[in-house]
Design goal:
With 65 residues, the chain is mainly alpha-helical. The chain has two helices and no strands. The termini are far apart.
Length: 65
Amino acid sequence: MDEMTGILLLGVVTLCFGFLSGFQISHIYYNKRLVKLVKRCIHSGTIAPILVEIEKCKTDKSECK
């Protein structure tokens, strides 16, 4: 019975670690995309890059992961 509790606890910890690491990876990925978009907006002086990204997402869902 003691082994089963340990295995269950290890499974829960592993699951939580997986969720947290997945969240952190996606957070880093989307922040990098946002920074690139903000830099493009600053250099162009308009919000046109944002509008282009929105249109890309509407037409091609694989672009907006």
